[in-house]
Task: structure prediction
Amino acid sequence: MGDNSTKFVDYLDKYKSQRQCRYVDYLNMLNLINLNYDMNHIADKSYIGNHFQPIGKNDDSFYTTYSASKWNTTTPVGNDKHKEKINIDNLYTLWQQEHTVDISINHLEPIREPEKTKFIKIDKKVGSIKDLLEIIEQNEYAADTEYNIDLKSLHNIKSELTEMNNMIGMEEMKKSVLDQLLYFVQELHVGKQISEFKHTVIYGSPGTGKTEIAKIIGNMYSKLGILKNNVFKKVTRNDLIAGYLGQTAIKTRKVIDECMGGVLFIDEAYSLASQENNDIYSKECLDTICEALSDHKDNLMVIIAGYEKELEETFFRVNRGLESRFIWRFKMEPYNAMEMMKIFKKKVLEQEWEFENVDDIKEKWFAEKKELFKNFGRDIELLFTYSKIAHSRRIYGKEKELRKKLSVEDMNTGYETFLKNRNSQKENNQFIHTLFI
Result:
């Protein structure tokens, strides 16, 4: 090995220690490799290893070679003593031994941004997510241009901003997310011996889109580099609390470790604690979470969701230190009749259905039934499912042109099925409850 050569793996490790790569950096690197396959000599020995041999499309030698290879775990390999050591767990170690390759550092050039030769000032008051999208649409990012805002980052999260902007209703929640985004994207949370919490509470009823919002936030912050990994893990009580004292802390820490660099989303977080009883398992879990919120505030974002009143009386009651660590609070307002109608129409179009007469679908229809859609978006989705079933019965044996065209009659029949099934579920729950009294 010469002075200017080293092992490829060692080079990557050294590169990583010198520079913390963000998620977007990896995307850029992969893009450069794809665009410059030949220029970067990807087929050189330094990349493909010592044992690379091109195989033609009609060459049967691959199958002959593979059958006798130690990589084929279905074929006995070597003598019995060696065969016992071959298993799936150590195949990667064997692969490393077969692919120890030296590379020349001189051939590897660091990725450099072009020199900034121009300056553009973007002067626009931002009061909504729609305003950010207008900035993106009106200003293409150029690598040789300096901007007074981080335009490149905005372009990176365009799809997430569009998805959130297109969500029906939630106007106050969208403004709250915008405030959080503008704060972090300008790195105002970073300072000398200061690093503020990203942990967030989303208040709201089931079916109001809390999980979708949490996922969008996680994706945005990973693309911006605020979170190092694109990790999103949704958990409930069963994922965190064990059946024995001492095991809950271990189980909770394991989940937290899996979410490092990303988002841990705890839905219905009030289920982790009781309003009245001081459950020692719940306290062990919440104490462990509280500790992690501070110890890993730079490398972890925890989002909890649930009803506001229940969270205050359970989750935050058990450990008072939790409240000060969740400084961001988003509130999902219940959908009104107009928003429910828009959600229903949106679901119909997304599944490539249509209405016999869209003008027959009135806000009044939803206003009369709104109070019975307790789970909002989830119930609207059920209504659509039952309406499709009613439609299939109505158009059976009729012209094909009628297929996938919903009528108000289909919706009325679907609504009756929705009520019948909901009442049956209530009766079953009451019956099961009486078995344990």
Remarks:
- The CA atoms of residues 361 and 420 lie 22 Å apart.
- The chain has a mean pLDDT of 82.
